[in-house]
Structure to design on (292 residues):
């Protein structure tokens, strides 16, 4: 494989053992790459095409990691859907659909191709850019915050059952925060246990207030494409995902929300519905990008 566009297309005929694939579209993209679709594309040196891309992760016959970018999004989407259903599906992009081949993988991949050397980055003579690599799981930053939000969206029921709705009660009345915002927040650790100290129990967490204010601003002034996304949820609801500078929000339109902040490592802050959150979630859902 090679790093330039021309060489990447020619290299499509080389052996690539496909291990997995992901979509890079306005409605669905690897959140480790950025807070929105243009930012995610920029991380890979790609223009933010309206239709998006498919990212095919695999190894060459020497075991080197490669991420092949294709513009046939439907081809990759069908393969992913088949794999999610436990079905076998051969993903073999046509060389005419290959946009470029990037060294390394942007995501952690737990499997490897059989009968080739163990996964490793290509040598410097094989590519003209540093290899992609997944974020360091031992530190907390924007990528880890977004991955945490991904996990909450994926495991909503597990996280939701750890939240006691009575914790949202405030002196201002049922469901009303003491600071008048209409939402309350209670800090919790990454495993869902309650955080010690009074700070975690104070309604109207300043970081959450900032997030909600910035999310409301999105309704009046639309942010970059992909900052707000909406996907299926049970019972006719929608799962909302919004990101911004230093924060991520995950919510169900018929339930509460969770906030994660760059400056509060590993903490998950639940936000009660109150009188204002339902309207905010409805407005965000109307403007959100949705999968086709």
């Amino acid at each position: 494989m090679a790093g330039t566009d021309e060489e990447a297309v020619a290299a499509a005929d080389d052996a690539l053992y496909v291990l997995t694939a992901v979509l890079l579209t306005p409605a669905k993209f690897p959140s480790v790459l950025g807070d929105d679709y243009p930012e995610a594309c920029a991380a890979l040196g790609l223009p933010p095409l309206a239709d998006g891309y498919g990212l095919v992760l695999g190894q060459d016959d020497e075991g080197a990691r490669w991420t092949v970018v294709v513009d046939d999004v439907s081809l990759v989407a069908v393969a992913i859907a088949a794999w999610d259903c436990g079905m076998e599906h051969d993903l073999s992009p046509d060389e005419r659909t290959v946009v470029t081949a990037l060294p390394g993988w942007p995501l952690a991949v737990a499997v490897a191709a059989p009968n080739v050397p163990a996964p490793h980055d290509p040598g410097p003579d094989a590519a003209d850019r540093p290899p992609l690599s997944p974020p360091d799981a031992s530190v907390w930053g924007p990528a880890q915050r977004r991955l945490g939000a991904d996990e909450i969206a994926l495991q909503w029921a597990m996280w939701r059952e750890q939240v006691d709705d009575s914790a949202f009660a405030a002196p201002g009345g049922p469901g009303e925060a003491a600071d008048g915002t209409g939402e309350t927040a209670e800090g919790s650790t990454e495993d869902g246990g309650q955080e010690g100290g009074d700070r975690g129990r104070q309604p109207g967490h300043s970081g959450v207030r900032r997030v909600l204010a910035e999310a409301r601003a999105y309704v009046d002034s639309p942010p970059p494409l992909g900052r707000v996304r909406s996907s299926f949820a049970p019972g006719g609801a929608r799962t909302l995902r919004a990101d911004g500078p230093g924060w991520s929000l995950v919510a169900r339109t018929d339930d509460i929300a969770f906030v994660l902040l760059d400056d509060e490592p590993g903490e998950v802050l639940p936000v009660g519905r109150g009188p204002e959150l339902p309207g905010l979630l409805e407005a965000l859902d109307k403007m959100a990008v949705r999968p086709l």
